[in-house]
Write a structure and sequence with these properties.
This protein is mainly α. The chain has one domain. Helices cover 79% and strands 0% of the residues. It has five helices and no strands. The two termini are 20 Å apart.
Length: 147
């Protein structure tokens, strides 16, 4: 039974990372589109692109990665997912900035700091999504679940 848990966890982690790569592409595409075509300033374009990408990854993760944990589409699940990923984004930025400030080598090679921060945030987002956003048994009050 323990081996099955590890196999499922590894499968979920792999799918979550693949969905994240799709989300990165959506995020980047909407960022440029929002700024260049819609005329939004960078902060507004970034907020819009993050929201669109997070929604796309929520839909993909709820059907592919955590499909066995998801019931009917619910607004509360989407809000929990955005909350987890929003905290993950802040964590990512905070770790990146701390590494740039505290580790001289990362000032010369900031992509290294970005990679470390992204890996930690990915793990946070995965386990937060798995245990909170898509937690088995979390349903809206009065909303039936397909268990």
């Amino acid at each position: 039974m323990r081996l099955g848990y590890r196999t499922n966890l590894a499968r979920e982690a792999w799918l979550f990372a693949l969905v994240g790569a799709v989300g990165f592409s959506v995020d980047g595409g909407f960022l440029v589109l929002s700024h260049k075509q819609l005329g939004l300033d960078w902060p507004a374009a970034r907020l819009l692109s993050f929201t669109v990408a997070a929604t796309v990854t929520w839909l993909l993760n709820r059907s592919l990665t955590f499909g066995d944990r998801s019931g009917p589409i619910r607004l509360s699940e989407w809000r929990r997912y955005l909350a987890v990923n929003g905290i993950g984004a802040v964590l990512n930025l905070g770790i990146f900035l701390a590494l740039i400030e505290l580790v001289p080598a990362f000032r010369k090679h900031p992509v290294g700091a970005l990679a470390v921060a992204a890996a930690i945030a990915l793990a946070f987002n995965f386990f937060g999504s798995r245990s909170f956003a898509f937690k088995i048994g979390m349903a809206d009050p009065g909303s039936p679940r397909h268990d």
